Amino acid sequence: MNENLPPCPECSSAYTYEMGALLVCPECAHEWTPSAAAGQSAEDDGEKVIRDSVGNILADGDTVTVVKTLKVKGSPSGIKAGTKVRNIRLVDGVDGHDIDCKVDGFGPMQLKSSVVKKA
Q1: Which domains does the chain have, with CATH numbers?
Q2: What are phi and psi of 60, to 5 degrees?
Q3: Would you say 65 and 52 are in contact if contact means Cβ atoms under 8 Å apart?
């Protein structure tokens, strides 16, 4: 047991270990990044934490993938599912749009975190 590693956020096991960039719990097989553990404590402190469509915590500068095709005004095709968006910025946007980014082929726009997945 390494006393410098946090306990598992799923089952609170103290037997976590490092595997590359991930922390792993041998009891429940939960894997997470150390930054995700820090984000969860920030959420417990009342700070706003923005999560993607599958629950990963997002941060400024992350790369995300669009999970469903999005309609865009003035564009016949829209943004296709699977489009990668690099270097996002988290903002307190209008109408649930909490990601500010530049999408290749479309330019600057805001997206909802519920339609992206961390890449």
Answers
A1: 1-41 (2.20.25.10), 63-118 (2.30.30.40)
A2: -55, 140
A3: no
